[in-house]
Amino acid sequence: MATIDLGSSLQAGQRAPEFTLPSIERDGMVSLADYRGKTPLLLGLFRGVYCPLCRRQIARMGLEHEKLRAEGVDALAVVASKVEHARLYFRFHPTAVPLAADPTMVAIRAFGVPKPRVTPELLKSFQSTRIDPYGELPEPVPITEIAGRLNEIDGFEWGPAEMEDLQQQWGWDTATQLVGRYLIDRDGVIRWVDLECGKAVAGLGTLSSQDELLAAVRAL
Fold this sequence. Notes:
Strand content: 15-25%
Shape: globular
Structural class: alpha/beta
Number of domains: 1
Oligomer: single chain
Radius of gyration: 17 Å
CATH superfamily: Glutaredoxin
CATH class: Alpha Beta
CATH topology: Glutaredoxin
């Protein structure tokens, strides 16, 4: 089975890069500087709203938000979609976690979230590896089919905005943009890194468990 190189990502102990992005749920901007000196931050960096794997992970962050706040940690989910499009989606699918839009993937690139090149070996692995990350399907399906099957469950229809994001972020024959979460202390230093896949393609769509997240938070 093919593995994925995650070496491009920033690591624990490195300083988190600055960013300023438009807020999705309110007018104005949000930046890393808003949290410095005040609270640690769990930063989630995701693909656009076209991606059902990301939509589920963002919803999960919303469920985790109150537990994080009880530990003195804030959270922010960054979505790689145009702000107007993201606002429309989250107006009908609200989440408790604060949101920011990053259509040109400034933050994803600054943090070095991996975008591995698709080799023939990796593409073959995508076609042969079956997954059901959230236990929603009658049986696991090939990775190349997972987005379509989950979008069917959600009743989510792609339009021009989704196709534009997809072409920029994901290509079965070019490169695949992964997602990640970064736990940043109040001084702006990364203390924990959580990357999609964990090197194995069978982990596509999955991030660390809530227990692993809380253990990292309590180790700050």
